[in-house]
Amino acid sequence: MISPLAYVDSKAVIGNNVTIHPFAYIDKDVVIGDNCVIYPYASVLAGTVMGKNNRVFQGAILGAEPQDFHYKGDATRLSIGDDNMIREYVIINRATTPEGETVIGNRICLLKGTRIGHDCRVDDDCILGIDCDLSGECHIHSKAILAGRVIVKERCRVGSWTLVKSGCRTGKDIPPYILAAHNPITYKGINAFILRRRGFGEATIENIALAYRQIYQSGTSLENAVLRIKEVVEPSPEIDYILSFIEDSKMGIIATYGEEK
Q1: Contact call for residues 93 and 117 (beta carbons, < 8 A)
Q2: What's residue 259's pLDDT?
Q3: Closest alpha carbon to 141 in 190, 184, 97, 108
Q4: Alpha helices in the chain (DSSP H)
Q5: Domain that holds residue 220
Q6: What residues are labeled active site?
Q7: What pTM was computed for the model?
Q8: How many domains is the chain built from?
Q9: What average pLDDT does this structure show over 99-110?
Q10: Same domain, yes or no, for 132 and 199?
């Protein structure tokens, strides 16, 4: 059902069984998949392509122009997957250049007031709490949780299965499987409670913990800690992911209090 009080551009492509409430705004060059719901006063702007079963709540703005001085007015893209909940006043910027793309995956929960900057990527099954803010070109890996009012600075990454506590700010990468808290942001241990609830075995959790002891409790450099992990920690997909995340880091990783990594 499309309300006659909504604005839907004639060049928008609307799927089957889509509900668009009064006073919603659907721009040209928009694709909305089947079974989506667009609530009053939400705006879906040009360049936005979304899949099916998404709910976009009041006041959200999808596909806003990037807040980037490099933006030259080109037609750029925001891609949103399936089964997402995008709550009130969320703002998602599309990419800065035609070659780029802002990407929101599947089954993601974006709570009230969250902003996702240009060219960011949020992978499947993430939760971003109230008033989180991602600067441009950030990458949130799958199943990460950012509690309320977390600020992630440009080009930073957050690893899978990581929980970042409320109010943290980071200008560095946050590795996978951990808890991060406080300001300055610090490593606070592994995210064992969530890992157990999601079916990780005790041997796997202990192996992850052993890897992070080399990084954060051995008193050595990050480079030496990586070598120690390769020597003393049993190989596994989780350990391979930790090592590749660290080795691919361009921003460095968060430290324990008073240290630099």
Answers
A1: yes
A2: 57
A3: 108
A4: 192-197, 202-216, 222-232, 237-247
A5: 195-247
A6: 118-119, 136
A7: 0.96
A8: 2
A9: 98
A10: no
